[in-house]
Design goal:
Layout: H1 3-17, H2 25-34, H3 39-50, H4 55-80, H5 85-88, H6 106-120, H7 131-150, H8 156-185
Helix pairs in contact: 2-7, 3-4, 4-6, 4-8, 6-7, 6-8, 7-8
């Protein structure tokens, strides 16, 4: 199913390989490894959950990351079972070795799930509500997706699918958090005082 697509995308990855630079490789490797098991985004979520004023945003990003994990790692990767680029195409050189399957990119999905839930949530007058924080979340997500291509861990369509699944997971996390926080904060109906 993926044979023709693999070859077409392999040429894009081969071109990306020509952009690799000795001083840039370790920086990109360090950054892409921050996304292993969603580490960076789990850490940011825990930071949001620690402080009461950013807890609602943290709940949204936590639920988004759970949705991303379920859709990407538990469902799609096991259903599609696409080989990694270096496993399917001989002329590609990878900078990382991954044990699971390629489609979609879990790093990209987690990054965009966090970013979209963060963007949609109301951070109020905390740092989580600031424009610079929201822009940073999006930039981190984009850089995570690009890093997966740079190190040869994924095909472009893996990253694109990770972006789509991550956005859907981010929306789901945000929506679920608004429902949960709304349910817990609903005022109780007044009761008549005893006679």
């Amino acid at each position: 199913m993926f044979a023709a697509l693999n070859l077409w995308e392999a040429h894009i990855l081969a071109w990306i390989e020509t952009l690799r630079l000795p001083f840039l490789d370790p920086l990109v490797l360090f950054f892409t490894h921050l996304g292993d098991s969603g580490f960076l985004f789990v850490l940011l979520t825990l930071l949001l959950l620690i402080f009461p004023r950013t807890r609602r945003v943290g709940l949204a990003t936590a639920l988004a990351l759970v949705c991303s994990l379920v859709f990407t790692n538990l469902l799609l990767k096991n259903l599609v079972h696409r080989l990694r680029p270096w496993e399917a195409v001989d002329f590609l050189r990878n900078l990382v070795t991954e044990r699971d399957t390629s489609f979609p990119s879990g790093h990209t999905s987690a990054a965009f799930a966090f970013a979209l839930a963060f963007l949609r949530s109301d951070g109020g007058d905390t740092w989580a509500g600031r424009t610079w924080a929201k822009v940073t979340a999006v930039v981190l997500a984009v850089c995570m997706g690009l890093s997966r291509l740079y190190v040869g861990a994924h095909y472009p369509t893996d990253v694109l699918a990770g972006f789509v699944v991550g956005d859907l997971a981010g929306l789901a996390g945000w929506y679920l958090s608004t429902r949960l926080t709304g349910a817990f904060s609903k005022p109780r109906p007044p009761t008549d005082p005893p006679d």
